[in-house]
Amino acid sequence: MKTIKQLIVTASLATVALGLTGCAGMSQQDKNTAIGAGAGAVVGGVLTGGSPVGTVGGAAVGGVIGNQVNKTN
Asked: Any idea of the CA torsion for 36, 55, 20, 26, to the nearest 10 degrees?
């Protein structure tokens, strides 16, 4: 079972990485938000054993944190 979870996490990270290649026109803050949301979703899903609520919660928290990194005034 642990191998399946590792495969899912790896596939999710690869999907996020490939998806971000199309973000050339985005501002740095938008990119940080997207990266934060993707990473938060993966971490939230892993920490809660794949719970949809944990995944969505992790994405929300990660997106907010990513949005606030290097925020310009």
From this structure: -50
Query: What's the structural domain count of the chain?
Result: 1
Rounded to whole angstroms, the Cα distance separating 67 from 18 reads: 20
Residues of the domain holding 42: 1-71
Evaluate whether 45 touches 59 at the Cβ level (below 8 Å): no
Prediction pTM value: 0.65
Please tell me whether residue 21 adopts helix, strand or coil conformation: coil
b/e per residue 32-61 (b: at least 16 CB within 10 A): bbbbbbbbbbbbbbbeeeeeeebbebbbeb
Q: What is the pLDDT of residues 24-62, one digit of tens each?
A: 788 888 888 888 988 898 888 888 888 888 888 989 999
